[in-house]
Every structure is written in structure tokens, then in C-alpha cells.
Design goal:
Layout: H1 3-25, H2 33-64, H3 71-94, H4 99-115, E1 126-131, H5 158-168, E2 171-175, H6 178-188, E3 192-197, H7 199-208, E4 214-218, H8 233-244
Parallel strand pairs: 1-2, 1-3, 3-4
Length: 246
């Protein structure tokens, strides 16, 4: 977990505390009834956000020291991260912190939260979804609609993912974009997802899919974005075993 990510959370905490102090102690905001009601509502909203951010930081500390995190804290932290992430990314830009670093920290924290729980799923309840750029761009056998079109030549990382699909009985689909990915999820209705993509697309997926646990695996872009990418299939297999472990 990046210390810069935690630092942004602390900055947001400080700003919320300043906001609370301002709303509570500026007398003119309490002199008119209408303003006092608005003031009270704003105080409650800011206080709720502050408590949520503090809870995220506390959860990070527990995970850092490998201390078991209560399920209720895991669920609340996931939701808090989803809601507050736009603010986290905004302050990252303000402080000239690389977006990729922030996104990577977010996906890593998400993975720690997801993998701190037990699932015991069957293979057919798990979906591996990857971008089409994992396939060799020069390959004539397109697999976006059907992975069985793969000839298993071994020149890209699609073949090892198909091997994992066959070995563990998990679902494996290739998506050409976010809309297709959402359609696949709606059709298969998995109980857990292993998503392979770049940091930006992984964050977008985590923001879109709210009720299904997602383990995010960042792809390697040795040839630039969206072309002939690679993935560490050992990480994917580790994620499968974690989700299937009883």
C-alpha cells in the first residue's frame, strides 16, 4: 500500500475536520434558523465522511499488520472507498501524484479486502474476464466472441488462461470494452470475478460492480497500452485458489 495513498486520506481527514470546525464555530451560520438547519445537516454529512475515512485508515493499519478485519469493517471500507475514490484521485492530481500509482494502491487495497474473506466457491461461480489486448495483435483467430477459437500456439497469455479455465472449471471470457464486460457479467452472474486489465479499467470496473467481489490483476504493457499485453498467470491462479478454498 502506497504511503502517498494514505497521505491523501489523511489530507481529506484534515479538510473535513476544518470544515466541521468552521460550520460549528462560525456564529453567523447559527444566527438564522434556516442556516442553522443547513448547518446541522452539513455537520452530520461531514462527520459521516470523516468517520468513513478514519475507518479506511484503521482498516489499512489492520491489514498492514496482518490482523483479522471484521466483516462489517470490510464491507463498510469497500463502500467508503467506492464513494470517496473520486476525491482521492482529485487530491492526487492536486499534489502531483501519478494517477497510475493511486489507482494501483486502490486496486491493491481492494484485493487485500477481498482476499481477507473466505468464499469456498465452485469453479463455475468464478469468472475470469480479460481484455482482448492479451491476444497477439497479429493473430488471425479472434477470440472475443469465443475463446475456443484460440489455437493454443503459446505466443500470448490467452493460452495459459484457457488452461486455468479447463483445470479449475472457472468461466473465462474476453471483453473488447467495458460495455461488453458488463454484459458478460449480467449473463453469467458470477459470485466472484478475477479481472485482468490496466489500472484505469480496473478502477472503473470496481466502481461499476458493487455487489460482486473482484480481485484485480494488473496487466503488463510492455508494448504500450492496449496492444500485446501480458499478465502474470500465477497471480490469476492464486486468486482462483483463494476464491475456491474452503
Amino acid at each position: 500500500m502506497s504511503l502517498k495513498f494514505v497521505g491523501i486520506l489523511l489530507v481529506i481527514c484534515l479538510l473535513l475536520i476544518v470544515g466541521l470546525f468552521t460550520l460549528i464555530f462560525i456564529p453567523q451560520l447559527q444566527s438564522v434558523y434556516v442556516f442553522s438547519v443547513v448547518n446541522a445537516i452539513l455537520v452530520l454529512v461531514l462527520l459521516g465522511l470523516l468517520l468513513w475515512i478514519i475507518q479506511i485508515i484503521l482498516t489499512i493499519i489492520l491489514l498492514w499488520y496482518n490482523i483479522n478485519v471484521p466483516n462489517i469493517m470490510i464491507k463498510l471500507t469497500k463502500e467508503a472507498l467506492r464513494i470517496t475514490y473520486p476525491a482521492i484521485e482529485f487530491f492526487g492530481v492536486v499534489f502531483s501524484i501519478d494517477k497510475k500509482s493511486i489507482r494501483r494502491s486502490y486496486t491493491n487495497l481492494n484485493n487485500q479486502l477481498v482476499m481477507s474473506e473466505e468464499y469456498g466457491l465452485s469453479g463455475e461461480e468464478i469468472l475470469i474476464i480479460s481484455p482482448h489486448c492479451l491476444q497477439k495483435s497479429s493473430c488471425p483467430y479472434k477470440i472475443t466472441n469465443d475463446i475456443k477459437n484460440c489455437k493454443k500456439c503459446g505466443n500470448c497469455k490467452v493460452n495459459p488462461l484457457i488452461d486455468l479455465h479447463e483445470k479449475y472449471g472457472v468461466n473465462f471470457r474476453v471483453a473488447s470494452g467495458g460495455t461488453i464486460a458488463r454484459r458478460i457479467i449480467m449473463e453469467l452472474r458470477p459470485k466472484a470475478i478475477i479481472a485482468v486489465a490496466c489500472e484505469r479499467d480496473l478502477v472503473n470496473g470496481l466502481q461499476d460492480v458493487k455487489k460482486i467481489p473482484i480481485i484485480a490483476v494488473t496487466n503488463k504493457r510492455l508494448n504500450g497500452p492496449c496492444i500485446d499485453t501480458e499478465v502474470n498467470t500465477l497471480k490469476v491462479e492464486h486468486a482462483i485458489l483463494k476464491l475456491m478454498k474452503e
